[in-house]
Each structure stands twice: as structure tokens, then as C-alpha cells.
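Bit of a strange request maybe. I'm writing a small parser for C-alpha cell strings and I need a real example to test against, not something I typed by hand. Could someone generate the C-alpha cells for this chain?
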Amino acid sequence: HPSTSRSRTVHQLLFRYRRLNHLHHIHIMQQVAEEDPEKGAAWATTTAAQPEEVTPLINNAPTSQSFIYGSPPPASLMPSTSSFISSNTTCSSAVTPRFSNVTIDDDSDNDGNNNPPPRVPSMSSTTSLPARSSSTNNRPTSSSRVPPPRQKSSLHRPLDNGSGNGGSSENNNNPSSFHHRPAVPQRQPLHSTRSSRIKTSSTLIILVLGLFLAVCTLFQYFVMGPDSFNLPPDLDSNNNDGGSTIGEGVGAEGGRSSGSSKAKRKQQQHNDVKFDEFGRYIVEDYDANPPFSDILPGVAGIYGKPLYVFYVNRGQGIASFGVKSKDYPIMEYYSANNAYQNTALLGFRTFYKGRREGNLLQGKKSKEFLVEPFDSSRTRFSQLMESSSWNEQEESRYPVRRMFIGANDMTIQEVDMWNKIETNVTYFNLPEEDFGAFVKRTTISNLDEKDALHLSVLDGLARIQPVGGKLSSLLKMIGRTIEGFMGVHHAGWVDDLTMPFFRMSEIPDDEDAVVVEEAGHFCLSYIEYQEKDLLPIVYDTNKVFGEDTSLMRPMGLYEKSIKEILEGKQYGAARTSSAFAAVDDVTIWPGQKITITSFYGRADSITDLPIIARRITQGGFATYKLSRARALIQQITSSAETVTAEHLFDKHVEQMFLDNALMGGIPVLLGDTDDDGGNADDDEKIKVYHLFSRRGDLERDYDRFIIESTYFSEGPSNFRDVIQNRRNDVIFNPRVGAFNFNMFLSLIQADGYNPLSVEAVVFSVDDPEVCLRLATNAVGFADGHRAQREALASILCDGEFRPGQLVEMIEEQNIFLMTSLSSFIDDVAASSKVSPAAVTEGAGFSADHWTYILDLMASYLQIYPDREEYLLFSSKLTYYYSHRVVSPRKNKYVLSKSYNGEWLHVRQLDATYESTERREYMRQYVNPASGWYKNEANMQHDVEGNIFKSSAMEKLFLLATIKFATRDPFGIGIEYEAGKPGWNAALNGISSMLGSGLPEAYELKILLQYIHDAILKYSRPITVPNELAELIEKISTALDELGDSDFIPSYEPEGEVKVPQPLFLYWDAVATAREEYRAISLFSGETHQYSSGDVAKLTKRWMKQIDLGIDRANVIGSHGHTQSAGAVITPTYFSYNVTKWEETGDHNDEGHPFCIAKEMVIGKFPLFLEGVTRVMKTMDKKQAVALYEHVKHSGLRDKELKMYTLSSSLTGQSYDMGRMMGFSSGWLENQSVWMDQSYKYYLELIKKNMFDQFFEEMLNGMLPFIDGEKYGRSVMECSSFIASSAFEDPKMRGRGVLARLSGATAEFLSIWKLMFIGETLFQLNEGGELEMQLVPTLPSWLFKENDLVQSPAEKKYVIRFKLFTSISVAYFVATPKDLFGVKPSKYIIGLRDGSIMSVESISSTLAANIRKVVYIDYIHAYF
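Reply from user aminoacidic:
Good idea to test on real output. This should exercise your parser:
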């Protein structure tokens, strides 16, 4: 052999000798087969049953398939139905047929049957428990001896038994087997003496040659040394590819470096960040970095059931996961501060009990060890590495660790050079299955080049919670008592440990009706490529940790081997269990690796486990599902694909698009969605449905998140979050049309407020004939299908439903669909009507939610400027009807003591109440079939029972009227009269201070200006309910009495400013009229019509009053650079102190007397960035530039970080303001850098064409350009806030907190739209025809060299992005230059039919076709 290898072991030499004997054995048996076919067939069966090396045949999903925006995986990607195991069959010890159970020849091609595993049978299917094994040992073996890979030669093919399949007899009837080996030609036996002697001679020759080669090999080893050998090709390659082993260097999957120099140890994580081949962000020494938390997005595809998953950079990462909400944990939910401490002990753990054989000839002793990868005792903290005692030997004891943060998966890696073991753990949500599961893949690699690694392994969850109702609070409050209900059951035969089922005996409620629990959590595990053999699970925590209740040390492993633990009795009753997959005595040869794959999930019944086990043990299942999990996110983020010279920026765009989608949901089209470019406005058979919306994580522990574990998964969220993050839906997908605008405007109540929580829309089919038609099309016309047909028709007609709920009901009733599920859902959606759904939660209404409707309207008109009149006047929208009502002042102005008890003051408490009258009215709309309210119960009716509807213009006018009637006593801001402030919820106390907000007044001015201009533009009358007309009349009367005086006060920097009596009387009169209007539960049904001229006069008069109020605010509350003098920066909030009052004689529930205010003085607050941002919307560029300079030198600027804080210093303010005063300065809403507000401010800069200022701020204060080391987490992910320089700990300044699910994502996408597309993409020319114009705002440093330049005449620099999710757009320039508001000189447009157009401008039909998307392939713009 050529001498190029550096190592050789005696084990490898003996293996070579055994191989020669094995080849001789094969030669003998081939001769036997020729002489006696029956003996040959028997030998073939025996050989096939031995462990064979398996190469999975599942590649990554083809990029041409898109499952996110369409239907489930098409039939072309699924195996034939013959590959299914019937769910009614008994599950044997061979759990499921494999995709491939043979070794593939090096020179053979795949057979092309490259399919994903078949779908698991329905959970509703009946199945029996696994049959008892015929073996005398009922427990499957826990020993897994992984042999060295064998040479892939035809000599290894076992003889065929006549069926054409070289596998075991069990697989001969398996139609899903991939390779059918040709049978060895059978010849008649030869019995001559001469033939027998020839065979004997050849046998002796082979044996002699084998012995001779062995002697030569041993001679070469001991004389010439081990370096004279090559590794055999089969040992030098890694055929047992268990997944992501991070390769040489950081960027690939498999780094081996131990980092010898201190310079490398203290590597800076600035913005020169690293990504691996999958685009995952790499965090070096992740567990030694400052703690942070993150999420896996909970995206399992349209036809998948996700789990929520949270992780931290401690231990093995995963801090909590479960089903639906934190109330149903598999791993218990803890807030971030506790998760940072608990995860390394209570989360996933891995223990290696191993040995390496010694070499007596080389003087090496055998080595045994017990080690836990990723344990906190070996973390490479900087304090250790910088100590004087640190040296090379000490460093080798501390493994190198990395975290790879992917969009839908996360990997941690440990390279332990002391034990020469590399461990990679990859986590992901199982996608596109009809059961939900969380997957952990642990890959163990032997880094030693000489010695084999003999391991016993425990890998799994230290504490797993059972199913038993809502457990989160019970586990924390009465956890020991709850353990009494816990138990571990088994789906297999007696003493089988492979399918444990963790459930409680009953739901622990102190109720007279006892509910027995049948559902449970499961843990199923196997070694990849040996999937048929499920691993036993160690669930008895005491067997692993003994009496160490801290779970720090596995004391049980010091006392017993894993084999002894498995052979002993385990107990799971009345205790919290573990879930460790156990591997006993596996051998990993040098350079090789194994992967342990575990699935943690929830099943409705213990009988479901064998079905799930058969599904997940398909060959290559986990590898394929990981690729699908990544592909799902890629299909989402490809909508925002951006290619510039700044790779970090490009990745950040995709991340922000994803996180924005998780907040607002991803819109998909259901129904009759032919590829004709039609949108939801034009075709009533097209329905828009949002998927994957979610909220909540470890840091936002206050969020009561819900992630439905169903098909079409979605979850409810806050009204503001959803409406804000759907702002750009129509920008990225024009086919959505006006859906969002109409839906959210429909949720506006008649009192001008809206429900707090928004849910997914609901579908309903009211016509029984339509229900029967849909059911007949789905299940068939035959008489035998009558029962299912009627059942399905009943489901469709029994009330509102969502697609995921519809599928669940079909499964529960065992209805078999003869059509595809996606076709059925589309048919139902096309025939259904859609209604918005929301919930009024808790007390109070937010004051600013309505302002985001204007953003939706603006986005729509940027794409459909030619449909403005249709938007405003054609559609009739409902009003949301809530059981909660704003209290009148006489029932909420309360006399009480101040927070320090030193004085009496009037506060506004219990600002809303639950109306008994409204509750009674809503009860008539309870669905008798379900017991739930029909959606009609939350719609405003008139006294005749008719649903009251208005056009968009009429609702906007009603909204403007109510908000104008809610101005504060000084006529400045909008009152926070309903118990909640605007955006800044941490100002929760300002409502009690009779507070008001100027930001809402600025938005009201913008709304009134729009109504004024639009009503004159289209000269159309509007009709409003009589009740509103009466309110308008009273407002006009009060304005007449007020007169024309401006009531501008003189500036009083320290003194109190009293509300002038005329203004107070006006406020009292209008507030009384508003209260009378709200006291009406149902409209009379009578209406009043206003002409366009009447509306214009009213709005103009109201705008004048708002301007006067803003002038008063600038005198009273504006601040200069030092916050002391000069009306230069707008105020944001005000409060009112009642100085004179009268008691009504009534008291609230706490005994405080109610009061009527008679006189007031106004109070002011420090600067807030929100006021600056909102007022800038009303300014021209010159005014905005002046304001920007003032703000830059004010207390809102963090000069150290070069960012803007949410507020200036709040020192000295009253604690009555709210919880923000309780927060430390620089943290949360107390003077931190709140990214949502900062990005809103940056957005206004670019809107005002302040390009130089914007890009200066962008490079200082926007991701991904900020200091990554200070930020402390991935600069791809935007945090809610950054600790500012006001925070006392310098190490925390600049640290990102509350990552990802931030409103800043919506602002960033609006900024992206202005940068890459322009302010107005479509517009109408003077002739009223549609035009399109790309007018980007791009700096020169974003242009990159054009790699596709073919001639000197072509433009050499380019920026690329996606328009409308699918049209490729490229901007070409000869040299890098700023494109600030510059129009292209020409366009080259490629159509889908292959034709190419060159135009100077885009107008008329071409512009309309681009908006329809389906006809256009690419647009190249030249500057």
C-alpha cells in the first residue's frame, strides 16, 4: 500500500484479515448455492438479516415545489398507496418497511424512486398494540454495535431467494423497497470428483494467500511503522452521515480547532459575523456569552402541526417547548431569567460512558471516562482563559462550543479534543405531518484517527411533563401535589421501554365532574440507519441522577452501567420523569459518527404511538424533514430576497420579513385561485387567510401566547401588533387587495374603539344545499357514503369554522375524503363567506389602535390608486359589538389619596364596565350545536335586528367624529378615557391621571385632512346613523358657544396652567354628548345623509380646532434642548389635575366617592420620541429638518450609542404615571432605546427625503450595522429594546433585549420599500391612466459588482431584489453612485412567455400586468 496515511491500529489490521475470511466465506457459499439452491436461499435470508449499511435515498425537496402557499405535498412526491401499512394491522417488532434496506453499489445508479416517506395513517384509525416478540427476550436489545463500513462490492450482495429482492424475507413483499437485486443465475449442480478437487484446491489457495497477506501486513506494521499505511477507502469516508458535522473552519459544519492562542480565544464578534453553508448565524463559545433567549418560529407548513419552542444560549439550548401555550408544556415554561439558570440542568442532557482500548505494543493503556457534553462546568469563560494558570493542556480540557442559529432550526456543537469526541445537536419542529413533534438529532463523531470509541449513551430530556390539563401555574404553585397524578405507561409489550407515554391519571381540578386523561406525551428514539430498532427510554430520573436532586451529576451512572439500568426496574408513578434514549455499547470507528434521533410530542391516545413509530422510522425520515423545515422558511423569506454589496443587510432583510410575518401572519389565498392574477377584491371566491401568526417568548413572559397545533396553524394576537405588521401585505402580495383594510375597519366599534385581541377570520356556509353539494363532491354520490355525506354537510352548516378546525372535525368523525384535502378546502372556501373574529379581553380600550388603519389605507393606495373610490364607497362594512362599554365620568372619577398618602386627588378608575344589557342581547346568537357565540353576536344591530353596515368613508367619518369629541379639556390631545393609553402600555397610570395624548391628535388631523380631500374629490354624499348626526349637532352647538378665541396661554415653565373656563365648558358639553351617544346599545335604524360639501365644512372646522390645540401644546409642553425653554420639540402626553370638584354621593366598590370635576389644571411630562415621530408626519421637509436638529441635541439622543431613546430622563416624575416609573432607567420603557419607536422615527426621515440624515442614522442605530459585540445576540434579529447609556451597568449598555417579535419589523419593511421601490409605485397620470415608476433611494455603498457582465458596454454594478414576491428586479449603474429619488432611464422587462420589452416608462396595460404579477418574469432598470 502507498505510504500516505498517518495512522493504523491493530483493530483495523484485524478487520482487514476478517474481511479476507469473509470474502472466502462468500466464495464458499456461492459454490454451495450453485450445488444446492435451497441452502443458498436460506443463507441469503440469514445474511440479509445482519446489519447492513444504509444510504438514505431522500434528497432535499425540489425547489420547484412550494408547499407554503399552496397545497400539501403533491402526489408526485409521495409514494404509492401500496407502501402504507394498514393502520388496522398488528404492529410487529419490525415496525415499518424502510425506504432502503440494502447497501448500494458504488457503480450503481439510484432507481429514481426518490420519494419522501408516506404520510402516517390518520390518528383516528384503530390499531392494536404491538405483538409480543417471538424471541425469548421480550425487551429489544439495547446494544447497538455499529460495524466499520464494508467495501461496497457486488461480493456483498446476498443471494436472491427468487423474489427479486435481496433483502430479508420480511421485505420481499415490501413494494416500497428501492432496489431489487438480480438473482444469481442458477446452474445445475456439478458432482464430479474432479470438480470437487478443483474447488478444494482454490479454497486452500485463498486461505494460504490470506494468511500470507496477514503476515506481511503485521511485518509492515511492526517494522515500517503505522504511518506506512493508508486507511481503507471505506474507513476514510463517512458513509454513516448522521447530519450536520461542522467541517474544518467555522463556516462549514465541522470545526476541529481548539483555539491555541489568546488572540483567537478573545475573538471579537463584531459585524464581521460568520454564517455556515445553510446561512445560519454562528455564535462562538455561545454558553460563555451574555445570556440571550430566542425562538423557533413554530412553522410546520400549512399541513403540519407545530409546537412552540424557546431556547437560550446555555446548556443544550432548549429552555421550553410544548403544545399550544405555556399551559401545556412538554418541557416546563420558565421566564428567561430562570431559564438561563435551569436549562443546563432541567433541559436536554447527554451522558457518554465510554472507553478506548489500549495498545500494549505501543504502551497505551485502555481509557474509560464518563463525560457530559455541553455541561456548564467546562464552559470556556473568558475569566478562565485569561487567568495566569491557563495553558495549552488546560485549554484542551475545555471543549470549543458553537451555536448555529437558523431560521427554523438550531444547532449546537461541541468539539472535545480531550476526549476526541465531537457532538452536534440539531433541533427543529417536525413539518408537514398530522402529528406534532419536536425533533432532536444528536450526532456523535469519533475524532481520534487511531482508536475506536466504545460508548454507552443517555441522550434526552432531564424532566418531561405529562399531559394533564393546564399545568403551567400548577407545576409552580403545587408541583409536589401534582406529581401524585403523574405516571408512565407503555404502548409496547410487557417490559418494553421503547414507547413510553407520559400522562396524568386525570385532570387535577377540584370539581365534581372528574375528567380522565387519555392523551399523553411521547418520546421515540432510534439510531439513524438503524431506525427499525427503537431505542429503550430511561424515564426513571432516580436511575440516572440517584439522590442528587439538583440533577448536577448522574450519580446513577457512577454506580451502574446503562445496560444494568435498562435491565433493572424503572418507576414513573408520583414523580416527574425523564426521557433519555439509551444506547448500550456502540462502537464508533475512527473518523466515523452516529446520529441518535429523538421525537418528543403529544398523542391523543396511547394506541397512536405504534402508528407514529411506523411513520418516523422510515429510512431517511429525519434528514428529509430537516430539509423541509429549512425549505419552508426559505419559501417564506424568498419574498423579500435582496442582493446588495452588504451580505449582512441582505440576510437581515429576510430575517425581518420572517419575524414580521410571525407577528401579523402570512397571507395565503384559498378558494378559486386560478393563476389569472385576480385579487380578493374582484373575485368573491378568493379568500385571504393568514397563517403562522404568534406572540410570546421567554422574555415576553407576560404574553399569553397561543400557537394552535393544527393544520393552517395560527394564533390570536394583539390588535395593534397584527394591524401594524400587516401594513405591507399588499406591497408584497397585491392579490391580497383591500382585505386587511376592510377587516380591521370592520372591527371598529360604534364608540370608536375596537377589541383588544384579533383572531383568524372564520368561514361559514349558510345554505344547506351548498353544504350538501360540498359534502357530496368530497365523499361521493354512492348510497354507501350517505352517513359520511350527511355528517360532513352537518359540520359545514353548524356554524363558523376555520380550515384547521374543519380538518380536525373530519378526522374526529372518521370521514374519508375522495378528493384531495387541499382541493376540498379550496372548494369550501370558494363557497363560504368570511367574517373577522376578535375578542374583547379584560378592561379598557387602547387609544391609538385606530391610527394604524390609515397605514393600511396608504399601503393599498400605493398599489391600487385607481381603486380609491371603490375602496371608500362600494363595500359595506359591519361594526364590532362589544359587551364592554366606556363608563361615564360620573361613574369613574373617584376621590382617593395619592400614592404616598399625602393628599387627596381625583383619579379616573374602572374606566370601562361590562354591560348586562349587551350580554343579554348577545345570548340570542349562541349556536345551540356548539354552545359558542355565533359571529353575528359581535356585530352591531339596529332595534329591528338588522346588522348595521356602512361604507369605508362613512366609518372613517364616524371614527373621526368620535375622536374629535374625545379631545381633552384644553383641546390639545385625545383623552385616555377608556382605561388604556396609546402605544406605550407602560404608561398604564396616565389614564388614572386624566391623561391625554398628542400623537393621536396628530393622527386625527391627518384623517380629517384625508376625508376632506377625498369627499371633495369624488363629490359623493355619505349616510350615518341618526345617533351620530345628533352628536355632530351637539358638537357644532358647543363650538358656536366657544367662539373664535384661540385661548393660547402664556408660557409658565414652573407654574400651573389652568384650563380656561370657556374651554372647560365646551369640553364638558361635548363629553356629555359623547356619553349620551355611547349609552345607546342598538341603533334605531334611521339615518342622516350629509352632502360632500357638508362633510368638507365640518372637517375643515374641526381641523382648525386641532391646530389651535397644537399651538397651545407648543406653548405649554414643548421643550428646548435642555427641556427648560423654547417651543422647539413637541410634547407627547399631558395630564389633568382636578382642583375643584363635587361629590355625587355614590361610591365605587372600594368605597371611594365619585366626583364631578369643576375646574382643572394641566400637567406635562418629559420628552417622548413618539410625539416627535407623529408630528413629523404633518410637516414639510424644511420643518422636519429643523425638528431633527433639535431632537439630535436633546435628551432623546443617547450620545454614547448614537441612538434615540424612548423618552428623556423621567427622574422626578410621579409614580402615578405607571409601571415605566418602576423600571430602572435605561431599561424597558424607561429611557431605553425602543427599536419600534426609533425605526418609526427613521422611517419619517426617509419619507421626508432627508436622505443624508437617514443613512447617517441607519449606520449608527439600525441593524445589522450596530456594534454586534455590545448587542450580545445575532445582529440579524431585531430586539424590542436596547439598554441605553442611562442604565447603571456599563456592560449592559447596547445590549438587545426582547428579541424578534417587535413592531420594528413593520417599520423596517416600510423603510425597505422606500429604499428599493419608492414612495409611490403606481399612480394615475393626468389622463387618469395607470402608471408605474420605480424611484429607489439607495446609497452607492449598497451596489455590488455585476457578476454577469459579458461586455464592457454593460453596466458593471447592480442591486437585485424581489418585487411582489416573484418578479426579479435589478438596478444597473455604470459606477456606484447614490440613487436618491432618481428615475431609471429605461426598463427591460422580461415576460413569462419569453418575450422581452424595452421601454422608457411603464404605463397602462403593462403596469396593470405587472401588478397582476403572473405575466412578468423580471424587470431590469438602468440608471
